[in-house]
Amino acid sequence: RLFTHGYDTYYPTHMVVYHWFEVRKYIWDEDWGTKWKLQQPAKRRIRAALGLPITVDDYDRTDFEKFTVGTKRTMNQFIDFSGINPLAPHKGTSTDQFVNCGDLKYVPVLEQT
Question: By residue range, what is the domain housing residue 35?
């Protein structure tokens, strides 16, 4: 969403910040059977907001228009730029979905008329 709204993000090639993690219980460690069922509509809402296909139309539409993709760049431009294709089939590896080794070329934002 940041990309399609015109934001440019950059990531360092080396770790510059670290965080100490203590062993603790996480919310997803308990009762995954119930939480998994709650997670699925949320995942479909994200997919719909990104303009990706969904299998079931059961997600919450509260303030949905606030969370859709922007108009400064298209999702196809994001796929071309990043090498990350959320529409590629998952075949047990990320080979087809993440082809992102190499130099990235800047994608200018679309001018508003």
Answer: 4-82
